[in-house]
Design a protein that fits this description.
This protein has 443 residues and is an alpha/beta fold. Helices cover 29% and strands 21% of the residues. It contains 14 helices and 19 strands. Strands 2-19-10-1-9-5-6 form a seven-stranded mixed β-sheet, sandwiched between helices. A hairpin with a 4-residue loop joins strand 3 and strand 4. Helix 5 packs parallel to helix 14 and helix 8 packs parallel to helix 10. The chain is globular, with a radius of gyration of 22 Å.
Length: 443
């Protein structure tokens, strides 16, 4: 089956069905309801777990669990963890780009609230913008610190200066670079009470932090380079499993394993593309009576440009100049883009509000069909994300405070920070809009 077709089908398949062996005794899920209120924990500190280890896997596509189920990639350490928990499919946010996605995981807020935005045109500065780390609401690291807890982050950069910093033994951040094993080295050292290099100085954490995060981006790098079926992916999954095993072993060595919960998820999936339709897209816009320009980060449009386009998986399209705010012009542009066979969806501002995207996006967001990109055709198959086809990622909950074999109901990025907070016995971050996944937690 071609990667693009697999991707289209996978968005409707739960990870629980992908890897049923580990969660065969799952309890019935609660009934579907329309009301999804924010769930907060009591302010009294009653932790279900003394520590939470959060493993942030960039580009962890839900399809990759197929490789484990089929025996192509072996992950025995993850399998052992799942005897104490569950794996299911979680839903991310739009756009499914790294920084906005991790911002929602870290804050429990939708992009419309935290405002972290990627690949858009900023009319205030007249420039295209790529990714940035601005976050308008507190992260879980800030929340835990404010409530008296301690945090450590090995290169989960979205927390840097938002609850963790270089040199702070209560909120310690390290950025060792390298691969997943190198970042795991720091986590293991902290669990052993050993100093780690933090901003050029050796720092020892004040005890074992309550929240420990480790960020790995090997899957994302491989996916971008070769697509979601790259033959290096099984080996990368097996290496991640080795790091899971090292962290689990270190918690046992430190004597905290029985009081440690483990949460593992990704920011987005990955879709292979081998064809570009940038030229066709620009031609369609020109035929509708506009002068478009594709901009890269930091670039300003040339004189006479009236449609600015910034591409990051999806194409952010904004009318500029004299036609700003003209609904007829936006409608004409939308129809021209929708007519392209390579386009899967065009999201106008009403769609963006409905999907709770950042308000910084342009008039339209153009989502390509799987296999396509709003750009040039690459020399070899490559990978992209940013669209609704990359919203589904695995979510693992295991260990202390977690009910074995019980799947959380319809988990989302915005539910992770409240759930980690509940495991640690803290209130969720103040800007959180998600819910605690109570059904998967012990009372």
């Amino acid at each position: 089956m071609m990667p693009s077709l697999r991707k289209f089908l996978a968005t409707s398949i739960a990870a629980a069905a992908v890897w049923t062996a580990s969660t065969a005794d799952a309890a019935p899920l609660p009934p579907v309801t329309d009301a999804r209120p924010v769930t907060t924990e009591p302010t009294t500190h009653h932790p279900r777990a003394d520590h939470v280890v959060f493993l942030a896997l960039d580009g962890f596509d839900v399809e990759y669990l197929d490789l484990v189920r089929d025996g192509v990639a072996e992950m025995p350490n993850l399998g052992r963890l799942l005897r104490q928990g569950s794996v299911t499919t979680s839903t991310g946010v739009m756009t499914s780009i790294t920084n906005p996605s991790w911002s929602s995981v870290a804050t429990g807020a939708w992009p419309e609230t935290h405002h972290n935005t990627a690949y858009w045109f900023d009319p205030a500065t007249n420039t295209a913008r790529g990714q940035q780390r601005d976050i308008a609401v507190p992260t879980i690291a800030q929340s835990v610190r404010e409530q008296g807890g301690t945090v450590f982050s090995a290169q989960w950069f979205i927390l840097q200066n938002y609850g963790v910093t270089f040199g702070d033994p209560d909120g310690l951040y390290t950025q060792p670079g390298g691969d997943c094993a190198r970042r795991t080295d720091d986590a293991v050292a902290v669990l052993r009470g050993e100093p780690v290099s933090s901003g050029g100085q050796l720092v020892t954490a004040n005890g074992i932090p309550e929240l420990m995060t480790v960020y790995c981006d090997t899957l994302d790098a491989i996916g971008h380079d070769g697509g979601d079926a790259d033959p290096r992916i099984p080996g990368a999954l097996e290496d991640i499993d080795r790091q899971i095993g090292r962290i689990v072993a270190a918690t046992k060595e430190a004597g905290v394993h029985r009081r440690t919960a483990f949460v593992i998820t990704g920011d987005h999936g990955m879709t292979t593309f081998d064809r570009g339709f940038g030229a066709e897209g620009l031609a369609a816009i020109e035929a509708a009576g506009f002068t478009p320009q594709v901009l890269t980060s930091g670039q300003s449009p040339a004189p006479g440009t009236d449609v600015a386009i910034v591409v990051g998986g999806v194409a952010d399209v904004r009318i500029i100049g004299e036609r700003v705010g003209d609904p007829a012009a936006v409608g004409r542009l939308e129809q021209a883009l929708k007519a392209l066979p390579q386009v899967r969806n065009v999201f106008d501002r009403a769609d963006q509000r409905r999907m709770q995207m950042s308000p910084n996006h342009g008039d339209l967001l153009v989502e390509p069909e799987p296999g396509w990109s709003f750009g040039s055709t690459p020399a070899d198959p490559a990978g992209r994300h940013g669209a609704t086809t990359e919203l589904h990622i695995p979510l693992v909950l295991a260990g202390a405070g977690v009910r074995p074999g019980v799947h959380p109901y319809d988990p989302r990025h915005i539910d992770i920070a409240p759930t980690i907070s509940a495991l640690l016995g803290y209130a969720p971050p103040s800007g959180s809009e998600g819910r605690v996944l109570h059904e998967a937690l012990r009372r």
